[in-house]
Amino acid sequence: MRNLKWPKHSILAIAVIVTWIKTVIVYETSFDMDIENAMQMLILIINPLSFLLFFYGLSLFLKSPKAQNRYIVGGSILLAFILYGNVTFYRFYNDFVTLPVLFQTSNFGELGTSAAAIISWMDILYFVDVFIILIALKFLPKVQNYKPVRKDARKAYFVMAAAVLFLNLGLAETERPQLLTRAFDRELLVKNIGTYNYHLYDIYVQSKSSAQRALADGSELVEVNNYVRANQAEPNVQMFGKYEGRNVIAVSLESLQNFVINNEMNGEEITPFLNSLTQDKDTYYFNNFYHQTGLGKTSDSEFIFENSLFGLGRGAVFFTHGENTYNSFAESLGENGYYTNVMHANSKSFWNRDMIYKSFNIDNFYDVESYDVNDGNSVNWGLKDIPFFEQSTKLMKDMPQPFYSRLISLTNHYPFYLDPEDMMINEFDSSSGTLNRYFQTVRYLDESVKEFFDDLKEQGLYENSIIVMYGDHYGISENHNKAMAQYLGKDEITAYDSALLQSVPLFIHIPGSNDGQVMEEVSGQIDLRPTLLHLLGIDTSKDMQLGADLFSEEHEDFVVFRDGRFITDKVVYAGEVCYDRETGEEIDIVNCQPYIERATKELGYSDQIINGDLLRFYDAETGNLTVDEK
Ligand code: GP9
Ligand code: MN
């Protein structure tokens, strides 16, 4: 071996090749990306290459082999951490990290039990390229009489790297036109330009959005305002103000999807109490209601509930735009004499809640400090839901009335761990432990809601309240499609099925209303704010928001998801395919076309309001644009 003459840049070549191969293997093993054809496979394979050529190639500017090698080793470690960070994040969120989310370090510290379930010793393999480079450095002969790289050789190298990049972008463009301009979907981006380039792109988009706020002015609101006013649903006269002055108790049901409602698992009822509500004389149960959250999960659902605007396509709006001006549900109630608060037994900084709640003008946040939490009454992410609701009702008893409390439950959260004494039904028996345990934690959540109702009655808070409960987002991601298909008795879960599975239950329980019914209107979380305000007799005709009152005659059967999918009473649009809502068969895209445009428009307007922080130019009292910045 010593006799062989090794080219002087072998380490560079080795680094490019091993990191390349490792990255492709990681794509295959650690991310669940749908590859539909050979071209997509080819793009996936070449997409890390251009970046790696550039990145490691920068070593050619360094003067000595020692400095070059140090740069290459350091660089490989950095890239390995970035990729591994993506992998762990993906295991948890089924999505790729974006820059704003990366700065949510306060969140990562608290993943607690989840982190343990996510990381394993085998993960050292994600650093295998670093080890190979180190071994190569040790065993390859040292370069003798090193001369710095000639300029033209270096130029040729970077021309080659650029050629690879353009080849990549060209192939991606044929496969996925306008990828970079319209992308909502991180998976598509990573599939087409690779994780590393994706991060560069993300940095670019992020800086653009900071610039957007700086450049925005009130005139952008004119178009948005016209659209909002033209699409507003008039309140239902019978319902408007019917429950004026009642307390509002909103309950976020963690990870609860609608498929468990009125369903069984191995012969056992999963949600007996919630099932009883679907038949209850005082409950409106919405069985065609969908979550509209993105990467911000619970926080997105809160954002939508409070503002009737969408979260963002990238990152969590709670973090990226926590200091914007908003006209929240809480603020409207506050102006109408309500004491407003959120109750959630987690630390206040999680999802940046403490900050954004101030922007929402929420009077008080009962965070973990307000609760008695100990080893005996906690599991998984913290305080169990049954003691959480029990302690919350005690706190509510002392609140000035009318109040608005939004309670966020937590036990039914991935990885769905439960103490044996809280397991009321058996596990399911699929290959997915996650889905198997999910039924048990859902059963526990159901029990906690039942006891919550009893607690409210006991404390005398029940009669004079409206209790609204909804699933915040999905609990079972597409990673568990196989197990899910087994449970649902299907051959596979298609894009059509996945879209419909985003249905979460909504219950609007109004003691004494005597008008309970099952509501089949296609609707989403964005509709909650105007619906509730109208029940309380609060006008929303000047509000800058995108939802529609669920009881209004003018409410349309149309729900848009954050990623651009949508559902109506006739069609389901998912994966850029239009399906017949009834049969699930693919139909001509013209059936979806008008809605595609509206969905894009609504998501775009919402983004515009948030990115430009446009509500600082709007007076929700008068409906006027204000010139002065608040
Ligand atoms: C954390 C809880 C869970 O406080 O709301 O957040 P999620 O992971 O579901 O977004
Ligand atoms: Mn959640």
UniProtKB/TrEMBL annotation:
Gene3D superfamilies recorded: 3.30.1120.170, Alkaline Phosphatase, subunit A
Compartmental location: Cell membrane
UniProt-listed InterPro entries: Alkaline_phosphatase_core_sf (IPR017850), LtaS-like (IPR012160), OpgB/LTA_synthase_biosynth (IPR050448), Sulfatase_N (IPR000917)
Keyword terms: Cell membrane, Membrane, Transmembrane, Transmembrane helix
Residue intervals passing through the bilayer: 9-27, 39-59, 71-93, 113-135, 156-172
Annotated membrane topology: Multi-pass membrane protein
Main localization (coarse): membrane
Domain spans labelled Sulfatase N-terminal: 246-538
Pfam families membership: Sulfatase
Family assignment from sequence similarity: Belongs to the LTA synthase family.
Stated name of the protein: LTA synthase family protein
